[in-house]
Design brief:
about 350 residues; alpha+beta; 3 domains; five-stranded antiparallel β-sheet; 14 helices; about 50% helix; about 10% strand; elongated; disordered N terminus
Length: about 350
């Protein structure tokens, strides 16, 4: 089997498609929440196969990086209304940076306490730092969305590799409180696995993470960093960062963090410092971090031309029947419903 590809695509979805996607998405979301409950909705939306399938059913490209940004935007328009108690904050670029303000603005409508709001904001910041710096896989996060209710939350992010013009999507587990760093993803959707990866989210990196905290607390970083840059050759696949935010490193020392997570919310303590610490752990103290890419492959129904693989007609028909039942119950116009069902039928014949 092959994976869903996420090549970087430019441009915007046409207005006529976006409006129809919103009309169809609303009853589907409503039915899931009303028939199966809030927890099931979060379980589904955090599942990359369901997320991709929903994007396909709503009519968007199956193999585009835009599926993430467009579907998230559509769901944001649908959910951030008085009809639902599930909300989405964040998005692409500036919207991602504005996530804390959006969380605060949406909090009152679902009765979140100030304490819960601050926990959600910290979870949002930490998830972005984890996928950008704790997991270093060659992809820079440019899209961040946190989906939350009064009880649950999850995160969907997307990173880009400009050199290879590829994207990968990070799906988080469903949480009721702030997570640890370890094994936070339900899946990572990617076209390929990378060879040079620092994966400090892995349970196999637990000893390395603990050592990183000790190095900071005991103020060994500067000494060990000098040793690191003196090494002429090493086979890590990563260069040693030459510019570091020493103020952030000093702040980390002054705070005397008890655990690895405590360092992640320090402003300026980012990719360079974490990479240097991981390399110090590996090359100086011989405590290895996990170098395996955690990305998984997300499977689709196939394509009419056999790309990425021939359509599994039996599975395709089962999916069609499932969504036809949803559409029959959905509160959308007869015209929209007939058009959507007809499109599903036509797709199954191709």
């Amino acid at each position: 089997m092959d994976s869903i590809y996420l090549p970087l695509h430019h441009g915007k979805a046409p207005y006529w498609l976006l409006e129809r996607m919103k009309k169809l998405a609303k009853p589907i979301v409503y039915l899931i929440l009303s028939e199966f409950g809030e927890k099931e909705f979060f379980n589904r939306i955090s599942n990359p196969i369901f997320f991709q399938s929903l994007s396909n059913v709503l009519g968007f490209d199956w193999n585009s990086s835009g599926a993430t940004t467009v579907l998230t935007g559509v769901l944001k328009s649908v959910l951030n209304t008085e009809d639902f108690d599930v909300k989405i904050a964040g998005g692409k670029g500036k919207n991602a940076l504005d996530t804390p303000n959006q969380i605060r603005c949406l909090a009152d409508s679902i009765g979140l306490s100030d304490e819960k709001v601050e926990k959600l904001i910290n979870a949002s910041k930490m998830s972005a730092k984890i996928d950008n710096a704790v997991l270093q896989d060659g992809y820079d996060v440019y899209h961040h969305a946190i989906i939350f209710s009064k009880k649950y939350w999850t995160v969907i992010q997307q990173g880009m590799n400009v050199k290879f013009k590829l994207a990968r999507r990070y799906h988080w587990e469903v949480y009721v409180s702030n997570p640890k760093v370890e094994e936070v993803h339900s899946a990572i959707v990617a076209e390929r696995k990378e060879n040079s990866v620092i994966n400090l989210t892995s349970k196999r990196s637990r000893d390395s993470r603990n050592l990183l905290v000790d190095i900071i607390k005991e103020k060994r970083f500067k000494r060990d960093y000098k040793k690191l840059i003196s090494i002429k050759k090493f086979d890590s696949g990563f260069y040693v960062p030459r510019k570091l935010n020493w103020n952030a490193i000093e702040t980390a020392y002054e705070l005397q963090p008890e655990k690895f997570e405590d360092m992640l919310l320090i402003r300026g303590f980012g990719k360079g410092a974490i990479r240097a610490l991981a390399l110090i752990s590996d090359l100086i103290y011989n405590i290895e971090y996990d170098k395996q890419d955690p990305a998984k492959y997300c499977f689709a129904l196939g394509g009419k031309d056999g790309v990425p693989f021939p359509i599994n007609r039996k599975l395709y028909d089962e999916v069609i029947e499932f969504f036809k039942e949803i559409l029959k119950q959905a509160e959308i116009s007869d015209f929209e419903r007939r058009k959507a069902i007809e499109r599903l039928k036509n797709d199954s014949r191709d």
